[in-house]
Design brief:
This protein is mostly beta strands. It has one domain: OB fold (Dihydrolipoamide Acetyltransferase, E2P) (Beta Barrel), CATH 2.40.50.500. Helices cover about 5% and strands about 50% of the residues. The strands form two sheets. It has a five-stranded mixed β-barrel. Strands 8-9 form a two-stranded antiparallel ribbon. The protein is globular, with a radius of gyration of 17 Å. The N terminus is likely disordered.
Length: about 190
């Protein structure tokens, strides 16, 4: 894996966050929205995979600008969900365009390692954001239920309970670990 002592940095433009986003699952996919019925969409990647999707409220303004492009591929920031084998089964689309330094089919996963079995690593994501009060205390800005993202790959030694940050590449429906480093011990 990559360097073990790298420092994480807060996301750009979010100066109220106490620490970097310790828990996240985000990536970039290029594809098109296909209207399934009057209110449901599916996301079709440029290589032809069809994924169920949910549009976040922030994606609505983006959709207004892209209505004429529905059915045409373009890059989206997405939040993936996987099944126990590691296949992507669902993506939530964000209204934020991908940053220029992010490549299509690349994902960034940060969370606690839950299990390691037969080349599948289960990472627990608990995406809460905190605001600093008086430089010491922090208060959650939003609270979301935790979920797991399953990745293809191996980790050195026993990593269960440790906080890791991974860079993954989408291969078909799987997210394969390309690089990673331990952020914090158990």
């Amino acid at each position: 894996m990559g360097e073990m002592d790298r420092k994480l940095t807060p996301m750009k433009g979010d100066k109220s966050v106490v620490s970097p986003p310790d828990f996240q699952a985000v990536g970039t996919l290029e594809g098109s929205l296909q209207l399934q019925d009057s209110q449901l969409f599916q996301f079709v990647t440029v290589d032809g995979l069809t994924l169920d999707t949910l549009l976040t409220p922030r994606s609505y303004p983006s959709l207004r600008g892209y209505c004429e492009r529905i059915g045409q591929p373009f890059p989206w920031t997405v939040y993936p969900k996987t099944d126990p084998q590691g296949d992507i089964i669902f993506v939530r689309l964000s209204g934020y365009p991908p940053s220029e330094d992010r490549k299509v089919d690349e994902f960034w996963i940060s969370g606690r390692v839950g299990q390691q079995q037969a080349g599948v690593i289960s990472v627990r994501i608990h995406p809460n954001r905190c605001l600093t009060l008086d430089g010491v205390r922090s208060v959650p800005l939003r609270s979301f239920p935790p979920f797991f993202v399953n990745l293809q790959g191996e980790l050195p030694g026993e990593a269960i309970g440790e906080l890791w940050r991974f860079t993954c590449q989408r291969q078909g429906l799987r997210l394969e670990i390309r690089d990673g480093f331990k952020v914090k011990d158990r």
